[in-house]
Amino acid sequence: MSTGSRNTWEAWARSVPPLACVSTREPCPDPMATATRLARAGLAGQYVVYEADGGVWHFAAGSDVSVTADTGGITARAAGRTWTSRTDGRPLAAFADALSALRDEDDEGSRGEENAGGRHFYGWAAFELAHLLHADPASAGDRPLLHAMVPSVEVTLGADSTVVRAVDEAWARKVADLLAEPAAGQSSTRDEPVREGTEGIIAAGSAAYGRAVARTVGDIRAGLLEKAVVSRKVPLPAERHPDFPATYLAGRRANTPARSYLLDLGGYRAAGFSPETVLEVGGDGRVSTQPLAGTRALGADPAENERRRAELLSDPKEIHEHAVSVRLAWDEMAAVCSPGSVVVEEFMAVRPRGSVQHLASRVTGRLRPDTGPWDAFASLFPAITATGVSKRAALQTLARHENGSRGLYGGAVFRGSTGGALDAALVLRTLIGTGDEAWLRAGAGVTAQSSPEREIEETCEKLRSVAPYLRFCAD
C-alpha cells in the first residue's frame, strides 16, 4: 500500500467514533423478532441484521461511517467528510487497507473500545468482484463491488444477555426505548401475505433457463470446464412492494439456514436465508469453508424425505458435483493456509436447508502468518457452489449464458472485526431489491450428466425456500 493511501485511511480511521456507551440487559425472549423490529424502526440510513453461528442475532445501524469500492476507486466516509483513492483494478486490496487502518487505531488504544476482538463492521461483496479476482476484469462492470458500514449502534441478542454498544447516550437511549416496548408492539399492520400462486412466481423464465443449461452442458462436454452453477432471475411484480422485514421474519421461521440476514445497505435491500458460509475466520487464524452441492427437495413427508436423501447419496451426478467442489475448496484453502493444516472435517453429510436438502462438507485450515482474513476471502470468493470448476472457466461460461449481472446474488454478506475475524454468508435463497426493483434468483450445478428438466426442477425447489414467505406492503 502506498504511503499516500495509508495516510488517507489513517485520517479516516481517526474520524471514526468509538462505541463508547456499553450496557448489558436481560436476554430477549425472541431475538429474531426483536432484531427485525429494530430494523423496521428506521433508526438510521443503513442497517443490518446478521444471524451468526449458535443462534446469536446482531443488529447494526448507522449512516455516517462507510467504505465503498469499485474497479476504479474507493470512497470512505466519516464525520461528514469523504476520503477517496484509486483502486487500480484491485478494489479488495484497497478495501482491506482501509479497514486495517481502523484496526491500527484500535490497536493503539485510542478508541477506548470495550469489545473483545475490536470494532465490528458489516457489509457485502457483489458477485462481479469474482471477475477481477479470477477471470476477465472487463466483466466486473462499473458498479460498487464492496461496501461496509461501521455502525453507530450495535445490539447483540444472545441466549444469556442483550448487549448494546453505541457511539453516545442519544443512540443508546433510542435503542433502549425500543427494547423496552412490550412484545405486542412488535407486530406490524403492513404485513400482507403473498396472494399470487407461489408456483406461478417461481416458474418465470424457466424455458429460457433450460436452454442456458443445455448450452452449458455442451461447453462441459467440449472440455471447457467441469461444472458451472447457472442461475435464473425471477422478477417480482413492479406494482408490488415487498416488505423486507416481514418477509425475513416469516421466511426465517420456516427455514433452517447456516446464516440469515436482513439489510438495507449500500444501495441493496435483502432478506435471506443462506445455506452455507463462504468462509469463517476466527481471530486465532482458524479458517473454514462449507461447500454444499447436490440437492433434493425436502417436504412434509418424512418417508419421502428419507427416500430422496438416499437417492441424493447414491446419485452419480450429485456425488461428482459435490466431490469436485470439495477438491477445489481444498486447493483454495491450501493457497492461504499453513502446510499440513488443511483437512476435510466433514464429508458428504446431508443438511436440511428450508425446502431442500444438500450434500455438505467442511474444509478447515489455519492461516499462514503472512496471510489474513481478506487473503482467504480473495482465494475462496465467490463460493465454488455459486460458480463452478474451474472458477475462471465457469465465470466465463456464466458471462456467456446468464442474462445480465448477478449483483448481490452469489456474492456475500459479511460481519467482521478489526481483531481479524470475518464471517461471510453466501447470498442464496434471498429476496433482493434495489431502487424500485425486487427479485428472487436461484441456480443449479450443471455437469456433463445434467438435464435441463432436472436443473429447472432444482431451481424451483430452492425458490420454495423464499417465495411462499414473501410479504408485501399494504397499499
Descriptive notes:
There is one protein chain. With 475 residues, this protein is an alpha+beta fold. It has 13 helices and 23 strands. It has helices spanning 3-14, 31-40, 91-107, 129-134, 169-180, 198-202, 206-221, 244-254, 302-314, 316-334, 373-380, 391-401, 452-463; strands at residues 21-25, 46-52, 56-62, 66-69, 73-78, 81-86, 120-125, 146-149, 153-157, 162-166, 227-235, 259-265, 268-274, 277-281, 286-289, 292-297, 343-353, 356-366, 388-389, 412-417, 422-426, 430-434, 437-446. Helix 1 packs across helix 3 (91-107) and helix 7 packs across helix 13 (452-463).
Briefly characterize the structure:
This protein has 13 helices and 23 strands.
Output mean pLDDT.
91
Number of strands: 23
Q: Termini distance?
A: 51 Å
Which parts are unreliable, with pLDDT below 50 for 5 consecutive residues or more? 107-116, 185-191
Shape estimate: globular
Helix count equals 13
Query: Which structural class do the helices and strands define?
Result: alpha+beta
As a whole number of angstroms, the C-alpha radius of gyration is 22 Å
Major sheet: size, sense and barrel closure? 12 strands, antiparallel
